[in-house]
What does this fold into?
Amino acid sequence: MNPLETLITPGPGIPEMSLAENLPSPATVAPESEQPDARVFVMEGGKVAAHLALWWSDVPPHAEHRLGVAGGFTALGGESSKALLDAACGHLTAQDCTLAVGPMNGNTWRSYRFVDESGGRPPFLLEPRNHESYPAWWRAAGFGELSSYSSSVMELDGSEAVPPALKERIIRSGISIRPLDPDRYEEELATIHDLSLRSFTNNFLYTPLGRESFIASYLKVKQHVDPQLVRIAERDEAPCGFAFGIPDLESAARGERPAVIVKTLAVDPSSRSAGLGSLLVDELHRIARGKGYTEAIHALQHQTNTSLKITGRHEGRAFRRYVLFSKDLHPSLDGVAGTERGLQSASSGSPDSPGRTEVRAPIHLGTSI
It folds into this structure.
């Protein structure tokens, strides 16, 4: 067996090196456009056997820790994986980071999380995917679970989670729900962006995305967006919530039952509209069922997100679980620093914390496109 060698290169550039057979390229899993601060490679027999990218200069903020983020991870074996992660943590420590978090390509708008448990259902559109051994390899390198997520599926059988009296009260308060206007697509995206900023500002590890970048990301998939599956709530013509649904094009391509993905759900905390999130989901489900969809997927819900209550009312069944890891780079300083409890203790009023009501709990069901 050839000895393992570690190489760390500064900046986002990708050096020319031979890759081991079947190893994905750094350009595929962490492109230069994502501007990593460094890259780490493990070499075996003159070829790259594992690699990842690191971020520390522009990462999610935290009051008690300086985060170092590792993403774009790929490896072919447990030994090269441990050497890679050990080298990455050592380099982040040298940059004065106190907590390593991953997998995450810099922030939560990009690729992050591993699939950790699966019920066997094939992947859906926009879902993370990884080799089944990756979570075990990270745990073997000393990483522990920072937070977990799940995706659930439910039948679109016409049932509604919002009682008629509550629905009537919401409507009487002046709220109306309409579809996205495709003729004003970019303006509508700007509205959704502004609502997202107001709704998700305090979410766990959330960082704002500029309006231009947000719009550009959704312009790429405009042809796949069904305006009727995007429901926007307004009061006095002022937007106060939205539910963004997209067809699961992957299941359709496989000839499976047509499913709609509830990707993002947001309610402006200042709207004080208890039950609006549930009503938006009911409306999206109703429209999707009328279009012939038979299932809905509530995607990538945080373990403590109040959106899980909505999923439960629709008898959703979790079929996939995901994990985000962390490792304390100075374990003697704080015994709980590597857990989500330790991270959230400094984030007062996080909408992802347990016990929040729907009025004040913005809900993010899925990854951003």
About this structure: The CA atoms of residues 278 and 309 lie 9 Å apart. The chain has ten helices and 13 strands.
